[in-house]
Amino acid sequence: MLITSTPPSVFISSTVKEFRDLRSAIAYTLRVQGFTVFQSEASDFNIRGDRSAIEECLANIGDCDFYILLVGNTRGNLFEDGISVTRQEYRTARDACLSRGRPRLLFYLRDTTELALQSNQEAQLAAGIDDPNHLASFIDEIQ
């Protein structure tokens, strides 16, 4: 009897522009280890004809075994309600984890971002934080 198993899957979430190199390195490392990796900018990221790219991301998050969130200095694009795409991805992963126990959530916060947020506005600007209030509330939500 042949037993086949599906490789574990991971969704990588962050602002793409800020973390392009790190996202690529993480994806490569995970693929070499046998994981299926979902990242919206990848050439193999398939979008069904009846979904937008964002809808496809949210659907993939709920089906993954792991969700990796990288938080840095930039907020990224916003939905009409003022919520960032990355924040909505996180909420989708959190809700799926709470209701079904997956994906497992892994969070990484850039230490220079955390230090700048704890400092003054000048330090935040120097660190390249584009929306300190949004970022601080997002981190509070994650914690």
Number of helices: 6
Using only CA atoms, what is the Rg?
16 Å
Distance between the termini: 46 Å
Structural class: alpha/beta
Q: Helix share of residues? A: 40-55%
Our count of domains comes out at 1
**Low-confidence segments, ≥5 residues, pLDDT <50?**
none
Order of helices and strands: EHEHEHEHHH
Rounded mean pLDDT is: 89
Output the CATH topology.
Answer: Rossmann fold
* Basic shape: globular
Any idea what the CATH architecture is?
3-Layer(aba) Sandwich
Note the beta-strand portion.
Answer: 5-15%
CATH class: Alpha Beta
Number of extended strands: 4
Q: Strand arrangement, largest sheet?
A: 2-1-3-4
Description:
There is one protein chain. With 143 residues, the chain is of the alpha/beta class. It has one domain (9-111): Rossmann fold (3-Layer(aba) Sandwich). Helix content is 48%, strand content 14%. It contains six helices and four strands; from the N terminus they run E-H-E-H-E-H-E-H-H-H. Strands 2-1-3-4 form a four-stranded parallel β-sheet, with helices on both faces. The longest helix has 17 residues, at 16-32. The radius of gyration is 16 Å and the shape is globular.
